[in-house]
Amino acid sequence: MSITVENLHFSVDEHELLDDVSFTAAAGQVTALVGPNGAGKSTLLAAIAGDLDINSGQILIAGEDVSQLNSRQLARRRAVLTQHHPIGVPFTAEEVLDFGRHPWSTPDPQLRQEVIATCEIEHLLPRVVPTLSGGERARVHCARVFYQDTPVVLLDEPTAALDLAHAEDFLKAMRRLADEGKTVVVVLHDLAAAAAYADHIVVLSSGCVFAQGAPTEVLSSGLISAIYNADVEILQDSAGNPVALPRRRTNPSSLKNL
Question: Considering only CA atoms, which of 45, 62, 60, 61 is closest in space to residue 10?
Answer without folding.
Answer: 45
